[in-house]
Design brief:
Length: 131
């Protein structure tokens, strides 16, 4: 893969983001440094990165694709309301023995868990003002 200045800037912006941004989010963040870069270029660049396993797509249920430059094994917490995605380390899950069915299925190369719910600020907002 050719590492152009544009690609490098897009990668750096993603690597500096802990919030698993969408292509639109990243486009907004890099526009200051790369005023000529189009949203389409950001999409295509992220696709290329994914093909070269430089980034991961977070498998969210709804909404636009979200990207992750953190390639260490980790899990995610996804807020159903504000769509915030946070990393979660969960050694117990990483260490748990795989069920026998998985061996019959084939060779497992990675595993992750996604927790869905409301983040702390959304669950506070959800609480009624009076009880
Ligand atoms: Zn939230
Ligand atoms: Zn992540």
């Amino acid at each position: 893969m050719k590492l152009t200045h544009q690609r490098l800037e897009i990668y750096k912006a993603l690597a500096a983001s802990l919030d698993h941004p969408s292509a639109e989010d990243l486009h907004r963040r890099i526009r200051g440094r790369l005023p000529t870069v189009s949203l389409d270029t950001v999409y295509r660049t992220l696709d290329t990165f994914e093909q070269h396993t430089l980034v991961n797509k977070v498998p969210v249920v709804k909404g636009p694709a979200r990207y992750d430059a953190g390639m260490h094994p980790h899990h995610h917490c996804v807020c159903a309301r504000c769509r915030k995605i946070e990393d979660l380390d969960w050694q117990a899950v990483d260490a748990v023995e795989l069920p026998s069915g998985s061996q019959e299925w084939g060779h497992v190369t990675n595993r992750f868990v996604q927790l869905y719910g409301l983040c702390s600020s959304c669950s506070k907002a959800e609480q009624p003002a009076t009880v």
